[in-house]
Every structure is written in C-alpha cells, then in structure tokens.
Write a structure and sequence with these properties.
This protein is of the alpha+beta class. The protein has a domain of about 80 residues: Alpha-Beta Plaits (2-Layer Sandwich). It contains 3 helices and 6 strands, in the order βββαββααβ. The longest helix is centred in the middle third of the chain and has 15 residues. The protein is globular and about 40 Å long. It starts with 10 loop residues before the first strand and ends in an 8-residue tail after the last strand.
C-alpha cells in the first residue's frame, strides 16, 4: 500500500495480514513467559531488562511476576516508535535473551505488540 493510500489510523494490514504500526506513534510490547525454573528465568530476564532500558527509543521496561499463576513472568516494554521497537528486537541483547530463555521455558513465549491508544510517561 502506498504511503498516501494508508488509512488515517496508525494500523494497516499487509498481504500476510500482519499489523504494521505508524512509526511515529509509541508502541507497547508484552512478552509473557511460562517456566518451572522461575529463579533461573528471572536471572536471565532481569539482566536483559537492565541492558535494554538504555536502548535508543526505550521509554520504559517493566518486569513482573504473576501472583495468581506461579511460573508466569512478563516484560512490558514501551517504545517511542515502531522503528525503535524493531531495532531493539534485532539487537544482540534481545537475541541473547531469547537464546538463553529457550531451555528454561515450558511453552513458547507469548509476544504481542500493542498500539498506543492512551500511553504517557508519568515521570
């Protein structure tokens, strides 16, 4: 789809049906993991979070553990743009984290990309 033909909203669909976000809008990513090795997974992910918070375009990264579902942890990322988020997903830190978590997971991670309908930083 040509740039001038894109719809007014920031989400459009390519031929494969995958959503693409307007690069000028903030985006949020939710990565959710399931494990029986919670301490080991938390060690890997906490290192990843600390390193990733300094990446260009990162507005915030939170690391949380479920109280109601033991063994479920999540990372919530906020990026200033889809380009910054994609650049991060291609980074050495992201690739290394993915490689280190694979043997610790009981299921594939759930990764979801959200459009920023109402997102702002409080600080």
């Amino acid at each position: 789809m040509a740039e001038e033909d894109k719809p007014a909203n920031s989400v459009d669909q390519d031929l494969a049906g995958q959503a693409h976000l307007d690069d000028m809008e903030p985006v949020m990513v939710l990565l959710s993991f399931r494990t029986e090795s919670t301490a080991d997974l938390m060690n890997v992910l906490s290192e990843y979070v600390v390193l990733s918070r300094g990446h260009q375009g990162c507005r915030n990264i939170d690391f949380v553990a479920s109280v109601t579902n033991p063994g479920r942890v999540a990372i919530i990322q906020k990026w200033e743009s889809a380009m910054a988020q994609q650049r991060h997903f291609d980074s050495d830190e992201m690739v290394t984290m993915a490689q280190r978590t694979v043997p610790l997971l009981t299921a594939e991670p759930d990764i979801d990309l959200f459009e920023g309908i109402s997102m702002h930083d409080l600080a």
